[in-house]
Amino acid sequence: MLIAGTMMQTTANAMGCDMESPHSVNSPRRTLSLSKQRRATRSFFDDKTSGFGFSGDHGPKPSEVYGFVGSITTVVATVIFLVWAYVPESWLQSVGISYYPSRYWALAVPTYVMVTIALVLGLYIGLNFISTPPPTSLNTVFDEFSKDPLSLDSSLEEDEKPIEPISDIGIDRINDIMFNNAA
Predict the structure, then answer these.
(1) Which domain, by its residues, includes 88?
(2) pLDDT tens for each residue of 124-133
(3) Residue 81 is assigned to a structural domain of this protein
(4) Is position 118 within any domain?
(5) CA separation for the pair 25, 40 (Å, rounded)
(6) Which residues cross the membrane (predicted)?
(7) In Å, what is the CA distance from 149 to each residue of 51, 152, 169?
């Protein structure tokens, strides 16, 4: 019995486990260090690695695949659009392409898209102007989140005064700082 216990202790110490504390194996720090040790012993010539371009054992990330497919699709769609817009009809029919949209849409769709973008930007700016209070409104100076400065005990010395809490600076003090001390 003593020999079996000593062998288990030796095996546990060789694996880096502490047998006296049963919670050490289940702690997050211990799990992280064990995973780092396993990762550090991995060879570049393992049979488990899946090859070039794959992240770990789980294959490529979905965002990488979507980005690659999206970029290839964009290039192919641009080439098809430019061929359709600039190649004469006789050349397209000689290749065997006989059904395609009218050439009117080669100019109309980009124009509609640009006009739509310009209108959306104009509408966005207009809505911002509508939702902004006028300069004469007190809502530009005070709102429900305004905090008045607290008056602290002035009998304390400069070194002993606590840091003032965050508060808004009054418009009268800002005007005084900006315009009376400008000379």
Answers:
(1) 59-100
(2) 999 999 999 8
(3) yes
(4) no
(5) 19
(6) 65-87, 107-127
(7) 64, 9, 7
Q: What is the dihedral of CA 120, 123, 124, 129, to 10 degrees?
A: 170
Phi, then psi, of 85 in degrees rounded to 5: -80, -30
Predicted TM-score (pTM) of the model is 0.44
pLDDT digits (tens, 9 = 90+) for 47-56: 444 455 555 5
- DSSP, collapsed to helix, strand or coil, labels residue 176 as helix
Q: How many CA atoms, within 13 angstroms, populate the side-chain half-sphere of residue 172?
A: 1
Structural domain count of the chain: 1
171: in domain? no
Q: Considering the domain boundaries, does residue 85 fall inside one?
A: yes
The length of the chain, given as a count of residues: 183
CA terminus-to-terminus distance, the chain? 94
* 126-154: b (≥16 Cβ within 10 Å) or e: eeeeeeeeeeeeeeeeeeeeeeeeeeeee
